[in-house]
Design a protein that fits this description.
Length: 95
C-alpha cells in the first residue's frame, strides 16, 4: 500500500525533505506547496519535517558542510502540515 492510499490524497506525507538527494524527497508533492506550522508559528524555512516524530530541520545560518550543502539543525516540537493549494479550510495533519 502506498503512503497516499493510507493518508488520503489531501493530507501531506508524514515525512518529506526538500533536498533531491534525500530518500524522503517527492517533487510532485512539494510542487503543490506544503504549509508547516511548528510550535504554533507558520514557518517557511523548513528543510525537512516529520510529523509523527515531532521535529523539523532548518538551516543553521549561512554555514555550509564540506560538500557545499547547508548545515541544518533539528528542532523538536509539535508539527502541523497542510497543502497550500487547498486553502484555509484544508485538513491539517498534526503530531
Amino acid at each position: 500500500m502506498t503512503e497516499e492510499t493510507t493518508a488520503g490524497p489531501d493530507v501531506p506525507p508524514d515525512h518529506i525533505a526538500i533536498n533531491p538527494r534525500s530518500p524522503h524527497f517527492d517533487a510532485e508533492k512539494l510542487q503543490r506547496g506544503i504549509g508547516i506550522r511548528f510550535k504554533g508559528t507558520v514557518r517557511t524555512n523548513i528543510e525537512e519535517y516529520c510529523i509523527s516524530e515531532g521535529w523539523v530541520r532548518v538551516q543553521a545560518g549561512r554555514s555550509l558542510d564540506r560538500h557545499g550543502n547547508p548545515l541544518t539543525i533539528k528542532l523538536k516540537g509539535p508539527v502541523e502540515a497542510w497543502y497550500e493549494d487547498l486553502g484555509d479550510d484544508a485538513p491539517v495533519a498534526k503530531a
